[in-house]
Amino acid sequence: MGKKRQVHEPKAELVNADDAIADAARLQRIMESSERSYGTVSVRIPLAALLEAMDSLETSELREVQRRVEKRLADVGAEH
Amino acid sequence: MREQYRRFGGVRMDEQHLALHNLIVVADTGPVISALQSKSMDLLGLMFGTLSVSTTCADELAQHGWIDVICRCYRDILQIETLTLAEHERAAEYAQRVAKQRSAGSGQPMHHLGEAEAMVLAERGLTGRTLVLLDERAARSVAQALGLNVSGFPGVLLAAARRGLIASEGMRQRLVACRDQGTHYSSALIERVFRAAQERVD
């Protein structure tokens, strides 16, 4: 990493803030659509194995688990 | 250098590791360099599994001095795709379209082959399941006219921040790291995207 690297296409005009915000909204729509279209299969694993696996997750992965747990809890809460 | 990458072995699409989304994502050189500059390759791997790049993009990554890092750390995330003869012809046509755009920077089509090849690779996938990562406005304009789903690297980071995968301050630091290493993300872009991320997280 010590050596100086060239800038890629220095004269090209890059995305601006409006582009980036529109991109993020588009990407979120695509990701949500992708999640909805997942096929499902049931896999039985011991709860202890699931909890143990969480010990090896990175921060970003833990945040995704947290997001899904919170969504699931909200769904369960809404059902009761 | 491409051969060096192959020797270490990329992964095939059907060997993709678990990603949060079953999208096919094709990247141009610029967004991959930004991801490398900001140490965000693992984040892209988490979000998308693998990123496909064309042979021209792989050559450009090698020219910019990134191939060693890719081989050492990210060979399971980047996958090099080879175009067919017909696809090469279509890429040449798209490169001409990009070169004609006012924001292209260079009017030479050969300077836009990487973006054009990324578009052609993205056209292999199903609409709605394919994303092409492009940072250059001229190429984005052509890709959007082709009906492709486009995002730049800052948009990917903002989406990651909004999903809570990274903190908004961490997102800002990643964009600053890119800028500090020469990528032309403006201060206005960084601050506005940071504020947009703060609206949803932290």
SSE string of chain A, helix = H, strand = E?
HHH
Most residues in contact, chain pair and counts = A-B, 38 and 57 residues
Mean model confidence by pLDDT of chain B: 87
The largest β sheet of chain B comes out as: 5 strands, parallel
Q: Count of helices of chain B?
A: 11
Number of domains of chain A: 1
Number of strands of chain B: 5
Fraction in beta strands of chain B: 5-15%
CATH class membership of the largest domain in chain B: Alpha Beta
Helix-strand makeup class of chain B:
alpha/beta
Nutshell version of this structure?
The complex is a heterodimer of chains A (80) and B (202). Chain A is an all-alpha fold. Chain A has helices at 17-36, 47-54, 59-79.
Keywords:
heterodimer, A: about 80 residues, mainly alpha, 3 helices, elongated, B: about 200 residues, alpha/beta, Rossmann fold, 2 domains, 5-stranded parallel beta sheet, 11 helices, about 55% helix, disordered N terminus
Give a description of the structure.
The complex is a heterodimer of chains A (about 80) and B (about 200). With about 80 residues, chain A is an all-alpha fold. Chain A has one domain. Helices cover about 60% and strands about 0% of the residues of chain A. Chain A is built from three helices and no strands. Chain A has helices at about 15-35, 45-55, 60-80. The longest helix of chain A is centred in the C-terminal third of the chain and has 21 residues, at about 60-80. Chain A is elongated and about 55 Å long. Chain A starts with 16 loop residues before the first helix and ends with a helix. Chain B has about 200 residues and is of the alpha/beta class. Chain B folds into two domains: about 1-150, 3-Layer(aba) Sandwich (Rossmann fold), CATH 3.40.50.1010; about 155-200, no CATH class. Chain B has eleven helices and five strands; from the N terminus they run H-E-H-H-E-H-H-E-H-H-E-H-E-H-H-H. Chain B has helices at about 1-10, 30-35, 40-50, 55-65, 65-75, 85-100, 115-120, 135-145, 155-160, 170-180, 185-200, and strands spanning about 25, 50-55, 80, 130-135, 150. A five-stranded parallel sheet of chain B has the order 3-2-1-4-5. The longest helix of chain B is centred in the middle third of the chain and has 15 residues, at about 85-100. Chain B is globular and about 45 Å long. In chain B, about 50% of the residues are buried. Mean pLDDT of chain B is about 85; it is low at about 1-20. The chains are: A mainly alpha (about 80), B alpha/beta (about 200). Chains A and B meet through helix 1 and helix 3 of A and helix 2, helix 3, helix 8, strand 5 and helix 9 of B.
